[in-house]
Design brief:
Bound molecules: (2R,3S,4S,5S)-2,3,4,5-tetrahydroxyhexanoic acid
Strand order of the largest sheet: 2-1-3-10-4
CATH topology of the largest domain: D-Maltodextrin-Binding Protein, domain 2
Helix content: 40-55%
Strand content: 15-25%
Radius of gyration: 22 Å
Number of domains: 2
CATH superfamily of the largest domain: Bacterial extracellular solute-binding protein, family 7
Shape: globular
Order of helices and strands: HEHEHEHHEEEHEHEHEEHHEH
Structural class: alpha/beta
Number of strands: 11
């Protein structure tokens, strides 16, 4: 037995460098520890998808890819994590595309109000050439964009009053993501937009530093905003994507086989996450009602007024250097719509 061990050991030692040098198709998969950071809780749709992704990576790598999720922004908020990835101090993360605008400004195009009408349009544009091109634009900034997950259509909550018409937003201190398109949009609506990291949001709502916020119903549920917010207005004003990112420094050290595993598992995680988020989203309104939130939908007429009012946001975005990317995304959306 010992001889056999020795023999196979020698054989492996002799073969390994040869295989490494000559065969690109042989599985070259090493043990990899992957720290994957995210901002929501472990029990959120984000947390569930991270867990699924970790399992897929493990399965597809024969247990060699050991991905550990760090939720609740325990590795930092979106912006801090992006920087950790760029520097190579952290391998992976998921976060909002909206917080990437400091790195690639074009990501702000997704934040324009009422851009997508439904999830089908969003999926087609994000997974198609347009979304792919934006992912690629991260490469020379030290990041690798793998796939988009669904955060979802965003809705308004606040502790002051039900919002049934535009004017009701007047003077509400509303937390928004750290992103100029959001600040511009909500100031146009008459609110008082306060940019803040998500990790500080619950406390800000609890202490009254801000009166309200906007997020998909799934997040309003998983982050327990119903404990500190009375009114929920279904406005679906922006479709918000999440983006799964890897550190380019780390990614560049992976073999072709390892990259393949990573990309395939990422795509599987995207399919899981969107399905799961959509199912959860359908349950959330009932849950939030049960938790005591007062919920209303905006009438089509009121939504039209909002659309009208934020039209100049598109012009502003275009004149601030976004003209080209705006034209491209509108063409991509038109292609899905017809
Ligand atoms: C927000 C976003 C967040 C995400 C999450 C922390 O309001 O919608 O849910 O960035 O990854 O900040």
């Amino acid at each position: 037995f010992r001889k056999l061990l020795l023999a196979t050991g020698i054989a492996a030692a002799l073969l390994a460098p040869v295989a490494a040098a000559t065969s690109a198709s042989a599985q070259e998969v090493k043990t990899r520890i992957i720290r994957f950071g995210y901002g929501l809780s472990e029990s959120s749709n984000q947390g569930r998808a991270v867990k699924y992704f970790a399992e897929e990576l493990s399965k597809r790598s024969g247990g060699k890819f050991k991905m550990k999720g760090f939720g609740d922004a325990s590795l930092g908020n979106d912006i801090q994590m992006q920087n950790a990835l760029i520097g190579g101090a952290q391998e992976m993360m998921v976060g909002s595309t909206a917080t990437l605008v400091g790195i690639v400004k074009d990501f702000g195009v997704y934040d324009l109000p009422f851009l997508f009408n439904n999830e089908k349009e969003a999926d087609a544009v994000l997974d198609g050439p347009f979304g792919e091109k934006l992912l690629k634009s991260l490469n020379h900034k030290g990041l690798v964009g793998l796939v988009y997950w669904e955060n979802g259509f965003r809705n308004l909550t606040n502790s002051k009053r039900p919002i049934t018409k535009l004017e009701d937003m007047g003077g509400i201190k509303l937390r928004v993501m750290q992103n100029p398109v959001y600040i511009d949009m909500f100031n146009r609506f008459g609110a008082n937009a306060v940019p803040l990291a998500f990790s500080e949001l619950f406390t800000a709502l609890e202490t009254g530093t801000v009166d309200g916020q906007e997020n998909p119903v799934t997040t309003i549920q998983s982050s327990k905003f119903y404990e500190v917010q009375k009114y929920l207005t279904i406005s679906r004003h922006v479709y918000s994507p999440w983006i799964v990112l890897a550190s380019k420094r780390w990614y560049d050290g992976l073999s072709a086989d390892e990259k393949k595993i990573l990309h395939e598992a990422a795509i599987a995680s995207r399919e899981f996450e969107r399905k799961d988020s959509r199912e959860a989203s359908a349950q959330s309104v009932a849950y939030l009602t049960e938790k005591g939130m007062q919920i209303n939908e905006l009438s089509p007429a009121e939504l039209d007024r909002m659309r009208e009012m934020v039209k100049p946001a598109f012009d502003k975005y275009a004149s601030d250097g976004g003209a080209e990317v705006l034209k491209e995304i509108q063409a991509a959306i038109d292609a899905v719509r017809k």
